[in-house]
Amino acid sequence: MEQFRKDYKEKHPNVKQVSVIGKAGGDKWKSMSDADKAPFVAKAEKLKAEYSKKIDAYNNKAAGPATSGDSDKSKSEVNDEDEGSVEGDE
């Protein structure tokens, strides 16, 4: 779609509506054969695999410190409780 947008804008410089460009891209995709779509599908699968690796690594890194804490409360909740007890003691 990225390359299609560039080509379409060069051929139709006056068209600024995203919906028109998207519809034209969808129509072109529908008219393509499976063989014509193959390089794009392969690229999408490769990018999806890379994304999955990155998101898994991120989720594993983010989950590590959160599970090692003694409490399920966030720091702001703990601080709120501390502030509340100080105010009540005055």
Brief digest:
With 90 residues, the protein is mostly helical. It has four helices and no strands.
Average pLDDT: 81
Radius of gyration: 26 Å
How much strand content do the residues show?
under 5%
Rough outline? elongated
Structural class: mainly alpha
Number of helical segments? Answer: 4
Description of the molecule:
By secondary structure, the chain is an all-alpha fold. The protein is elongated. Helix content is 82%, strand content 0%. The protein contains four helices and no strands. It starts with a helix and ends with a helix.
Helices and strands, with pairings:
Layout: H1 2-11, H2 18-31, H3 34-68, H4 75-89
Which key features would you list for this structure?
mainly alpha; 90 residues; 82% helix
